[in-house]
Each structure stands twice: as C-alpha cells, then as structure tokens.
Hints:
GO terms for molecular function: 3'-nucleotidase activity; 5'-nucleotidase activity; exopolyphosphatase activity; metal ion binding; nucleotide binding. By secondary structure, this protein is an alpha/beta fold. It has helices spanning about 15-25, 70-80, 105, 110-120, 140-160, 230-235, 250-255; strands at about 1-5, 30-40, 55-60, 65, 90-95, 120-130, 170-175, 185, 200-205, 210-215, 235-240.
Amino acid sequence: MRILITNDDGINAPGLEVMAAIAADLAGPDGEVWTVAPAFEQSGVAHCISYTHPMMISKMGERRYAAEGSPADCVLAGIHEVMEEKPDLILSGVNRGNNSAENALYSGTLGAALEGALQRVTAFALSQYLGPQNFHADDPFEAARVYGAEVIRKVLAAAPREEADYRLFYNVNFPPQPADRVLGTRVAPQGFRRHTRFSTEPHHSPSGRKFLWIRGGEQHRPTDPGTDAALNLEGYISVTPMRADLTAHEVLDPLKAIE
Length: 259
C-alpha cells in the first residue's frame, strides 16, 4: 500500500511522527509511506489552497518533503509532483487537539482529507482530543498511537465501495484519555457546541497599534448525545463519515416555490 501523510501542525510536529508510525503499520513491510507536510504550522486554514502564489517545496529526507503551503496544497503536491504513483490512502494528522463538532469546519487537518477525497483517494483526518487526563502526559497522543491503525483498518473493511462525485472522507477523533481508558469506537454524526464559539481578543503593540488574536471557545462542552464531541468526552473514539458536498438537500424541495 502507498500512503501519503500530511498534517496542519507542520513538518516537525510530534503528531506527524505518530501518524508516520500508524501509516507504516498499515502499509506493511512492502508498502511505501510518503510525507508532504507544511513547512510551518497551518492550523485553522481549512481547505485553503495557494491559488494565487507559488509555494516552495523542499526534500527533507527519503520520501519526506516540506512545502510552504497549506495541508490541501501538500496533498496536491504529493499526488501531482512528489509521488511516483498515486497513493492508495491519504492520512492527515495526528492533530494536536480535537477536530470534533464545528472545529471540523476550520480544520486544516480535515482540509487535507477533503482534498484527498476530491482527488478520488480514500482519506482520513485523525485528531487527538486534549484534556486534564492527557495534556501533560509523557505521550499526549497515546490513544491515537495505540488505536489509530486499528480504527482505520476497521473503517476500510466496512466502508461502502462508491464512485460518487463527492467521495467520502473520514473524521476520526481520539478521546482525551490515556489508551487504557478508551472505551471503544463509535460511528457518530458531527455535533455542535452551543454557547461557545470562536471570537477575537485585542492586544496593543508597544507602538500602540492594535492587533487581534483569534480566540477559541471552550472545548469541553459536550455536544448532543451520540454526536462526536460528546462521545469523545465520554471516552470513545468517534468516526464521522463526511462529504465535501455542502448542499442542504432537505431544503431543495421547499425552495422550489421560488421557481
């Protein structure tokens, strides 16, 4: 199996090392693992691509490249420039922090998986929820490290074979617990954290100029029962199948009144 890995935390992020180990397990001794990851952190860029300016790409080692672009750029570079043959699988992450609920919409980790699906390659985004039980652990990524390859194998075995224009990709979030406290895996819809959202926080430079930091919302508010973040906070790995099709299909018929 040929696997392309990337992330949004950057080429030197510890989560990428975890992903490389997961990919090596899946690829097997006769497989190939290729890395094309952002040269610098690209968190929060979603499905951004560098459409109006070029990006530099540098070889860092055997089958290992850094690109001055977004995670989606890295997928494009991997498929169309770096790899000798198209990958069988694209893995993005392991992100430091969850991409459950509305976080999925901002996530560069998911942006890479989405681009993989648009390129007609099976793709997964993997993210490690952080909390009091694992934030200061020797290995905050332990749950993802231990269960990552197993979860991907199970999804690949159970997933429907399809040729849809907008192909499936998979959002996997590991709970904020050490591996021995993980309760299992649940297939779940994307949730929504109510009463918390991104905002801005102003600061002034020594010269008096005003700057704004983007501030995240509270991450430990549960979503509706049975949805991704709620299950993560209960101790479960969540698997959410997704598509890039943004159409609100249930509204098409009611809106036909305007025709």
